[in-house]
Design brief:
Protein name: Gliding motility protein RemB
Helix content: 10-25%
CATH class: Mainly Beta
Number of strands: 25
Radius of gyration: 23 Å
InterPro entries: Wzi_sf
Structural class: mainly beta
CATH architecture: Beta Barrel
Distance between the termini: 42 Å
Number of domains: 1
Largest sheet: 18 strands, antiparallel, barrel
Number of helices: 8
Shape: globular
Organism: Wenyingzhuangia fucanilytica
Length: 563
């Protein structure tokens, strides 16, 4: 096998030597730019400054934003003067790069490897992820990408207990943003995932994608509509751009952990019930500075019917909320929302999201605590070249989600694979986020502070207090008298810092050192924060954590550690 792999690499490099070298062909392709907050901060300033760019739907497509973001010029300026094959591959180029007249292929073998130490009983931590990534383009309109991740990890205490308290019945744990794991050593986790997609742009109006991965809707660090905190899912996505309007449809094939396809009482719980997500978002650049967006989403499972994706939700132009109502009260869970963005001056961007879950007008403005007045709000701002220092980006954000938002009966909760589809804290919380990022040449640094309060369920009490979106909303104690932050109130402070050096700009491979400080306090132990039935013998860690880590990584996705 080793000889076969080396032979393949050698053959591809010989083919590469016979073709004209183009270092960054992806910048004129239909490929998605891997979504990572730190990586996007390097180039998104140019996108926000463009007259008619749409910034809400992520990941961006290279061809759509590459020129306004100046990606080619940015990475070309980072190249080192290396003549040897090893020097070029380490510092500048993809491992394998095949170039043809009307096609190209990139292949990389990458690592996410780090070692750390914390102040808890865990002591030493490690992360060992091997990545195989291939991407390419055929002609000028069709692109493709595939990645495989094989991982063994040992996490700091609070992450490990978060993984275990969300443990499915047929797995060792649930890795945030990744999926199920099996045991590795005493407290380690072994897991693997695959992602991939095809992207086709037939003309200037449409981009069509089909794949398995993650998507994000919003301008903030968090999203209240659709985020990338859950495991990858299968999706189809159509983006239509006409003039100042961009209209995006997404259809997602999801899975639920609460209710198995099989009979759990008979010991058959090896499959998980299929459910579906249908979303659309309309983005309108009202002026060169002001953007207005509208969002709608439905979670359904088509239970009692064929079990297949309900055909009516494939209609790309329809009010899904009315359709869900017409199909019956228990047919699905619908949410609607609006987002805004305004650019003040050249470098200051203000943004926000407002989401409605259930809504009764006669109850909304009353102070009687009606349970179904479920909503969420986000306000935030980004400041580029802050204090006239080029490369410094500051961001401040506030998020608030009322009790029972995103929850519903049975598998219609707003989640996938036992993890929220929107904010990873679920419901019944407020949160503030402050981020400072600085990039210069190949160097980067960031400091992030997350502080907030959340009302969890109470240990030993079967009542739902509205913070756990996986518990049936019918388990509430009353229709009225519900209060914000009710239940077991907890306070979280999470400080995350990192310094990095970009080794190779072609594949975003970097050396980094980081530190995380977390303080968590709650009124009583927390045992129910995830899927049902919750794990026994584990509580959500209340110890203060200091964690230091050093390693190398390819920033191909976001790794959230602030819960």
């Amino acid at each position: 096998m080793r000889k076969l792999i080396w032979g393949l690499l050698l053959g591809l490099n010989i083919a590469n030597a016979q073709e004209k070298e183009i270092l960054f062909p992806e910048y004129d392709s239909q490929l998605r730019i891997p979504f990572n907050h730190a990586s996007y901060s390097v180039f998104e300033q140019g996108i926000y400054q463009a007259d008619n760019a749409h910034t809400t739907i992520k990941p961006y497509v290279y061809q759509t934003v590459g020129k306004v973001a100046g990606l080619d010029a940015y990475k070309t300026n980072l190249l080192k003067d290396k003549k040897s094959w090893g020097g070029r591959k380490l510092w500048n180029e993809h491992l394998v790069a095949v170039r043809g007249k009307d096609y190209w292929v990139n292949l990389d073998v990458l690592l996410d490897v780090d070692a750390g130490i914390d102040n808890t009983n865990v002591g030493n931590t490690f992360n060992n992820i091997r990545i195989l990534k291939i991407e390419g383009q055929l002609g000028s309109k069709f692109s493709y990408s595939a990645s495989a991740f094989e991982s063994q990890s040992k996490y700091t205490q609070f992450i490990n207990e978060y993984i275990k308290i969300n443990q499915p019945e047929d797995a060792n744990g649930l890795i945030p943003g990744r999926g199920k794991s099996k045991a590795f050593g005493e407290i380690g986790h072994d897991y693997g995932i695959s992602t991939g997609y095809i992207s086709y742009t037939p003309n200037k109006f449409f981009n069509i994608q089909f794949g398995h991965g993650q998507n994000f809707i919003g301008d903030g660090y968090r999203s209240l509509f659709l985020s990338d905190v859950s495991a990858p899912s299968t999706y189809a996505k159509v983006t239509t751009t006409v003039g100042k309007v961009q209209y995006t449809n997404m259809w997602m094939w999801l899975k639920d952990f609460n209710y198995s396809i099989d009979d759990a009482s008979a010991g058959m719980n090896y499959g998980h019930k299929r459910k579906y997500g249908t979303f659309h978002h309309l983005s309108w650049n009202v002026t060169s500075r002001f953007n207005l967006g509208f969002f709608e989403g439905i979670i359904t499972d088509n239970s009692g019917s064929s079990g297949a994706y309900p055909a009516e939700y494939f209609n790309p132009i329809i009010f899904y909320k009315n359709l869900e109502f017409a199909n019956g009260e228990d047919s699905g869970n619908g949410i609607v929302g609006m987002d805004v963005k305004y650019r003040l001056g050249k470098n200051n961007v203000f943004y926000g999201q407002f989401l409605l879950d259930d809504f009764k007008a006669k109850e909304f403005f009353k102070s009687d605590g009606y349970w179904a007045n479920k909503h969420a709000i986000q306000v935030g701002a980004k400041f580029f070249d802050a204090f006239n220092l080029k490369g410094l980006q500051l961001q401040a954000e506030f998020n608030k989600v009322t009790p029972f938002t995103y929850s519903h009966e049975q598998q219609h909760n707003y989640a996938h694979f036992g993890q929220p589809l929107a904010h990873l804290w679920g419901g019944n919380f407020w949160e503030t986020v402050f981020i400072a990022r600085y990039n210069k040449n190949r160097w980067g640094a960031h400091a992030k502070v997350v502080y907030g309060k959340k009302g969890f369920d109470i240990d030993g009490d079967t009542t739902s207090y509205g913070g756990n979106i996986f518990v049936l909303a019918t388990e509430r104690n009353n229709d009225y008298g519900q209060k914000f932050l009710q239940g077991n109130e907890a306070t979280t402070l999470n400080v995350d810092m990192e310094v990095s050096y970009l080794i190779n700009p072609s594949n975003n491979f970097k050396l980094f050192a980081g530190a995380l400080i977390r303080n968590f306090k709650s009124d009583s132990p927390i045992t129910r924060i995830g899927i049902e039935p919750e794990s026994t013998g584990y509580t959500f860690n209340t110890e203060n954590t200091q964690w230091f880590v050093l390693g190398v990584k390819a920033d191909l996705f976001n790794n959230y550690r602030d819960y």
